[in-house]
Amino acid sequence: MTITHQDSGLYFLPLGGVGEIGMNLSLYGCGGKWLMVDLGVSFGDDTMPMVDVVMADPSWIEERRDQLVGLVITHGHEDHLGAVQYLWKRLRCPIWATPFSASILKNKLHEAGIHNEVELNIVPLGGRFKAGPFDVEMISVTHSIPEPNVLAIRTSAGTIVHTGDWKFDPDPLLGLPTDFEALRRVGKEGVLALIGDSTNVFTKGHSGSESRVRASMIELFGRFDGRIAVSCFATNVARLESIALAAQANDRSVALVGRSLWRIDKAARENGYLADLPPFLTEHDGGYVPKDKMLYICTGSQGEPRAALARIASGDHPHVTLGKGDTVIFSSRIIPGNEKEIYRLQNDLVRLGVELVTEKDEFVHVSGHPGREEMEEMYRLIRPRISVPVHGEARHLQEHARLARACGVAEALEIGDGAMVRLAPGPAEVVDHVPIGRLCVDGPRIVRLDSEILRNRRRMVFNGSAVVTVVLDKFGKLLGDPQLTALGLLDSAHEAEEHDAVVEAVRDAIEELPVKVRKDDGVVRETARLAVRRSLRDSHGKKPITDVHLVRL
Ligand SMILES: [Zn+2]
Ligand SMILES: [Zn+2]
After folding, report:
1. For 197-224, what is the mean pLDDT?
2. Nearest ligand by distance to the CA of 167
3. How much of the chain, in percent, has pLDDT values that exceed 70?
4. Whose atoms come closest to the Cα of 76: which ligand?
5. CA–centroid distance, residue 147 to ligand 2 (Å)
6. How far is the CA of 453 from the centre of ligand 1 (A)?
7. Using one digit for the tens of pLDDT, what is the confidence trace for 217-252?
């Protein structure tokens, strides 16, 4: 379905982030134009071997690029802006962001070498701007990163409140508090639809305040004599400040370990945050400080194998070592899906003699997403007619829709990626499903997750691969034995018999072909391929990716 400028409707179309947590990409359509909100990534899991970064395929809007008026970034988390550096060239639209998110984005665009091409408009906190038929107000709220924004998007067909990620932290420690005045004002003006964060819909009560974590850390650090290493999400600048201040209060110096921490430190200081803290020590300088006077802040709370903490745990970090008498504090939660990696990391640390502290033991973390009480309060302030839950898996979306109805919202829709919802006029309904897909970063290029390349790589992981070389003379007679390599399947040194059996199967199959047919390359190749596969299936129970090299002399 194509939206034309004669169409008086208002549409919502998510291409990513609805039915999963991550890779957010939302579109709003009005008057023949589209506005994109957020363009983020997810990280690969064990269903996607060898894939680090995944994002929504923007092809649908790319094909309508002339209708795209721009991209608004709600906040600086990877799941909201991490794909811009990979996908902007396909979209080439202006971007709007508040200063801290803009700093993070600029850094990424610089790394991608496109910073001079992108029109990046910096919107002051609480600012308002026009993009085509959309009038966008950015309303300050709180989360687990500086400068998260709720968007009030006003159009001729009604106002949308797009919450982004948020919570109501009464004492966020850093940055502006939630602008309740603005939320109330927008609610009073009348809101057609709220498109909102569902992450913590199963959490009863209130998410809690960052300030309580700070108080708890000050007391906690006082209990330890050895080195302390704290791992947290790099983007949580308030948390970094809390850890640094709690270290100061306990007469400890603080070093940052990990690239993403230094990047965030730079972006934070550029925007006036962390101004009262002395510069952090480098991991190298930290080595000269006595154990009981040192605290490291490390990347890698999710067990990422290349991050600082995993390298320290496996003993291959060049500057930081931990052992008996030292303590590692996980000031973070386990993101579902990362359990295995995190437990592996924690086991490695325990084997070094390190004492572990997690959120199960002490109060060292609060979530950045709203609990049910906060969500109810948001609905009381905004009073939308329609709710479309986003930023959640199917079970979160269902529960959020229930909560919205219980809050008096007339229409709550459970949808998935690719569903085009007409919000106005008339009752909200799904009017179309557009094609969606996933892309991933594979070395220097971006490929579809369902592409043949990645399908084959996945099959190779599970089934191995085999290549056989067949050399024939011009009459189709075999010149010597076929040569076989079966990677991930056969150890040719120790499984000579099995190896020979496959070679024999290929030879027999070709020799059984009538001489005339042997002149047909296609038939010979397919015959050899099937012989290899049949033989390895019988002997090893595998169906490897198989290729045949046919040489005629
Ligand atoms: Zn998010
Ligand atoms: Zn976020």
Report:
1. 96
2. 2
3. 98
4. 2
5. 10
6. 30
7. 999 999 999 999 999 999 999 999 999 999 999 999
Strands (E), 449-495: 465-472, 483-487
Closest-lying ligand to the alpha carbon of 40?
A: 1
CA distance 397 to 414: 6
Residue 1: band (very low, low, confident or very high) from pLDDT cuts 50, 70, 90: low
Domain boundaries, the chain: 10-203+369-448, 210-357, 464-552
Mean pLDDT of 119-145: 98
445 C-beta neighbours (distance < 10 Å), count: 10
Q: Which CATH architecture has domain 10-203+369-448?
A: 4-Layer Sandwich (3.60)
Ligand nearest to the CA of 390: 1
Enumerate residues 6+ apart whose C-beta is below 8 A from 197: 163, 164, 165, 166, 369, 370, 390, 391, 392
Query: Which pLDDT value is given to residue 72?
Result: 98
Q: Which residues contact 516 (CB under 8 A, 6 or more apart)?
A: none
Yes or no: domain 464-552 corresponds to CATH 2.60.40.10 = no
CA distance linking residue 27 with residue 242, whole number of Å = 37
Q: How many helices (H) and strands (E) does the chain have?
A: 16, 29
CATH class of 210-357: alpha beta
